[in-house]
What does this fold into?
Amino acid sequence: MVDSMQAIFSADDYGVHYPDSRGKFGPYGGKYVPETLIPALEELEEIHATAMQDAGFQDELNSLLETYVGRPTPLTHARRLTEHFGGPEIYLKREDLAHTGAHKINNALGQALMVKRILGKNRVVAETGAGQHGVAVATVCALLDMECVVYMGSVDMARQAPNVFRMRLLGADVREVSSGSQTLKDAINEAIRDWVTNVPDTHYLLGSALGPHPFPVMVRNLQSVIGREARRQMLDPSVGPGQLPDVVVACVGGGSNAIGMFYPFVMDPGVRLLGVEAGGRGIESQKHAARFADPKMGRLGVLHGTRSYVLQDEDGQIALTHSISAGLDYASVGPEHALLRDRERAEYFYCTDEQALAGFELLCRQEGIIPALESAHAVGWLPELMSDVSSDDVVLVSLSGRGDKDLDTVMAELAPGA
Amino acid sequence: MNGNDCMTGVERIRSAIAKRQGDATAAFMPYVLLGFPSRMESVAMVQSMADAGADLFEFGFPFSDPLADGPTLQAATHKALLNGTTTRQCLDIAKELRDAGITQPFCAMSYYNPIFNYGPARFIEDAARAGFDGFIIPDLPPDEGEEMEEACREAGLALVYLLAPSSSQERVELVTEHSTGFIYLVSVLGTTGVRASLPDYLTDLVALVRANTDTPVCVGFGVSNGTQAAQVASIADGAIVASALIDTVLGPNGADAVKCLARKLAQGAHGH
It folds into this structure.
């Protein structure tokens, strides 16, 4: 059975229930959007609240998560990786084994079902960086017979060509965005422009735990199935170690797999929560996407409807980011992560491209799993983590997606000219 | 200087609009993107608009991610940023224009992040000193506007909020209660850009807003020629024009063509 959503929402998380009614996570979050979109956001807030309490909706979602997505995804004891480090036991939460190859489908399916069943909207627009969210949206639109338009930056289309083809096979209209940095942030700009123009019959299916309220809370709620399952699996001695993890590690772009994994553990004070951002070519190079790690460029700001940490120049213009992983290549971070960091409930580190590639190779060789370059950032942090944990600790890693889509990029990096 | 010195920014804006208020007349408010196509050319464009009959100005501050703008303004703001235009420079350009004797009210149109980064209170203080009378911030609805509203109130400057065809009665009430100077009525669902005709529902939309407030209503998004400006003048208090001017300035004989278009827009708005 797929773990029910109800249990988690009745809990009074960490003292106060976030976000508040204005969509604020402490000083973060909110609704910084053109007036045209406000009614659509208010409507979305309503249907989100309705869906969360509607047993019929929950049953339908849970049934599809089980029979279509393939949930629950397994918990894998990474025995050879554990042996390799000679330290703590390492477990992997296998979102790479979900249908379409990443956690993105959890959110895409939930949102699409909500707007189709409750609002009756039949057109969906989405942005995509790595293409995993776009593929997930194209997939659920095929499943639910909805019209699907995916905006993707030219740079990302080139480096994630297989996913572009995949989306088109699934019937999506993939539109190239050649403005600005031609990556994820520009794809979001374009998706929002489409939404503003077509708002009466169109839903914007945002793929990460960011954007204006209610997206951050809605995406977190839909993705928290990852953490709920992982928590139960860890505690179940027939599947996992029979105890809670001491450390949970997840990569953080916008932060949806991380918040989905962290959230159900937030009330377990003994569990350290570690997010790993994309360090690109290093902080000094200014070619990275580590919002929390760069005190000069990473400052409080407002991007795409939400207030959070934003990489920007001295004049408040949004910085061009870099990461080997398209899915982490974004200038801002979900507002709830900023709050968890302030409250010292979660810690954030970064992996450079090089460290992520090392993590990528390590997981291939040690476990026979080709991870997405995004997830490889979580694996890539493990060598650093080893000096910070004891050998009887248990570490849980969120393996958010699989790496087939990244083979071209990795080939170019590991065997240039080959 | 012009006898307006003892008035607040809100009063100057209201007075400029009031001068043109009438059954078939409205104020003409052209948009000039500062630093585009170059700093000097944007200054010249303001002068030219003033000569053509502009009653107020909307001055665009460039931003890297203008999500409410269509292709014309996206390309133009990108160019302005490539020219090295900064928020500080935009304030300096306004000051330069005041010193050159331009007396019409100035509204700054900026996305919120550059203002937030500058520091809202400091920004308003510096903008007031540079000669600004009000602000239009497309991604700052009243729900998030508390800090700006307070600082604007203290400085006597206008914080203009927007309404759209999708706005509910509750939103119309909220926006009309909080907006000062005027209400910026977005005429269509969508981004900025030239459109062939104005929507049929515009008359009803203006009436809905008017039923809730005495604050003037100015219409923008899609107003692009003298006929449309005259149409707007027959129902609203101001016509705001941006993309059509930018498209024209980029075309052949840009400087002359844009002045000619501005004259037609002013005539349309002023009921000539």
